[in-house]
Design brief:
Layout: E1 4-8, H1 12-21, E2 26-31, H2 34-41, E3 46-49, H3 57-62, E4 67-70, H4 74-86, E5 90-93, H5 105-111, E6 114-116, H6 125-136, E7 141-150, H7 165-173, E8 176-180, E9 183-187, E10 194-198, E11 202-208, H8 215-218, E12 223-230, H9 234-243, E13 252-254, E14 257-259, H10 261-273, E15 281-291, E16 294-303, H11 312-329, E17 337-339, H12 341-345, H13 348-360, E18 365-369
Parallel strand pairs: 1-2, 1-4, 2-3, 4-5, 5-6, 6-17, 7-12
Antiparallel strand pairs: 7-15, 8-9, 10-11, 11-12, 13-14, 15-16, 16-18
Helix pairs in contact: 1-11, 11-13
């Protein structure tokens, strides 16, 4: 008999998570948008219409469930996870909120709950891979290059967003942290651009983004970096928009009305960035790990699922989350407190489980040792 799971958020990724888990469990999806819930309802997923941003709403809605999946926008994530912990429920989260999740560790341990944060593709699967190899050898260098892109490059943006527009913009403004020679370095997002060639894709542009997140705290590795991938030339217009103030959170007054420029920018750009019916995306990720004279490499190239009309970013992010959710449900990962994905990867059985779970769904990480 399946467990009772609630998925908070029914966006593109949250919907993919709900559908995958509903194959073996009783799943309820919660969102304030009827349109998103209607699609899930037609496929047999129970739904609840609820504004999860309202104080106390999360705690109320999760009370009857065995496990919570967090798939809300990042600006809601921290408060949402806190409410779930206070309700005494285990949670696997992909909201990628900007706050330090370890601030909630004491509360989670007091409540005796398991919280897995950042459980997507990167951060997420990249952390799991590094956590596994770091438990097996002394790692000297970790590099992760990752991006989700539309198959068709279309002027002027050559990009399509597959999750919250505010979260996309956060990638362009949040300072990027990486570790170099044992020192934590902070640089602006979009810095240190470089061109990199990828098998079956061609040349993409990589630039600094804040994807290391918890790895900067949990891993004693002297060199670690994560970069985001876009089509070449993309970052130039992003820099112009950022430096012109279009991504600013500071209110400006226009004809007596105060607005945040970032809200206007998101409102204008997201319709242009949105994947339209029939448009396809792909996810590409290359991870390199060096240590003890070894060079290890993982390569992912995942494409839009035409049969089930599920975008690649939802597959690569969502199925990592559902794999770990099943580990938690089966008691195979039950460490109390805040757990970034690298903690999951430390156990070889759990690492192999996640890799196989993804492969069974066509998300295949090619591995080679040089």
């Amino acid at each position: 008999m399946g467990k009772n799971i609630v998925v908070l958020g029914a966006g593109l990724v949250g919907s993919a998570i709900a559908l995958d888990l509903s194959k073996n469990h009783n799943v309820t999806s919660v969102d304030f948008k009827e349109e998103a819930l209607e699609k899930l309802r037609k496929k047999g997923v129970s739904t609840i219409i609820k504004d999860l941003a309202r104080p106390g709403a999360v705690k109320q809605v999760v009370a009857a469930f065995d496990l919570v999946i967090g798939a809300v926008p990042g600006f809601m994530g921290y408060a949402m996870v806190k409410e779930v912990i206070e309700a005494g429920k285990d949670i696997v989260d992909i909201s990628f909120f900007p706050e330090d999740p370890f601030q909630l560790d004491k509360l989670a341990q007091e409540k005796g709950v398991t919280v897995v944060t950042d459980c997507g593709v990167a951060p997420g699967m990249g952390n799991i891979i590094l956590g596994y190899h770091n438990s097996k050898m002394k790692v000297d260098r970790y590099e992760c290059l990752v991006g989700g892109l539309p198959v068709v490059r279309e002027w002027p943006y050559e990009y399509k967003a597959v999750f919250s527009p505010i979260d996309v913009i956060e990638e362009y403004i949040r300072p990027a942290r990486y570790v170099e020679n044992g020192h934590l370095i902070t640089k602006p997002a979009l810095s240190d651009a470089e061109l990199v060639d990828f098998d079956r894709i061609g040349t993409l542009e990589a630039w600094n983004s804040d994807g290391l997140r918890t790895l900067a705290q949990t891993m004693d590795i002297p060199n670690m970096i994560e970069k985001t991938l876009r089509y070449p030339g993309c970052i130039e217009y992003l820099r112009v928009l950022r430096e012109s103030g279009f991504f600013s959170y500071e209110e400006v007054e226009i004809n007596g009305t105060k607005i945040r420029p970032v809200d206007l920018t998101a409102k204008l750009l997201f319709p242009k960035w949105k994947l339209q019916p029939g448009e396809e995306d792909y996810t590409v990720m290359r991870i390199q790990i060096d240590g003890e004279g070894k060079h290890l490499e993982y390569y992912l190239l995942d494409r839009f699922d035409r049969e089930n009309t599920i975008i690649s970013m939802a597959r690569t992010t969502g199925y990592t989350c559902t794999a770990v959710a099943n580990l938690v449900l089966e008691g195979k990962f039950d460490r109390k407190g805040i757990n970034p994905p690298e903690f999951v990867g430390e156990d070889e059985n759990n690492f192999n489980y996640v890799v196989k779970y993804l492969a069974d769904r066509g998300v295949i990480y090619q591995f080679r040792e040089l």
